[in-house]
């Protein structure tokens, strides 16, 4: 992925993950691996942690200590509602 130098990397990665959730590539209960994100996007763990923190705040993922972060059951509905709100 080529990053836009005018935006923080973590925001750009969060956008990619949101898109994958919205289009079904990451279905409910899909594991969101920090290690995989680090490798895929070539960023540090601290950057990935910002991504997961933001997605958790938005209700799109749920993190279980010792197990990992997973796509929330209602994540697609949250994104759809957010998209509908932005058109008003």
Describe the structure.
There is one protein chain. By secondary structure, this protein is mainly alpha-helical. Strands 1-3-2 form a three-stranded antiparallel β-sheet. β2 and β3 form a beta hairpin. The longest helix is centred in the N-terminal third of the chain and has 14 residues. It is globular, with a radius of gyration of 13 Å.
Key attributes of the depicted protein:
88 residues; mainly alpha; 4 helices
**Average pLDDT, to the nearest integer?**
94
Shape: globular
- Residue stretches low in confidence (pLDDT < 50, at least 5 long) are none
Order of H and E elements: HEHHEEH
Q: What does the largest sheet look like?
A: 3 strands, antiparallel
Structural class: mainly alpha
Termini, distance in Å? 31 Å
Individual helix count: 4
Amount of helix? 40-55%
Describe what is shown at a glance:
The protein contains 4 helices and 3 strands, in the order H-E-H-H-E-E-H. With 88 residues, it is mainly alpha-helical.
Topology:
Blueprint: H1 9-22, E1 31-32, H2 34-41, H3 45-57, E2 61-64, E3 68-71, H4 75-86
Antiparallel strand pairs: 1-3, 2-3
Helix pairs in contact: 1-3, 2-3
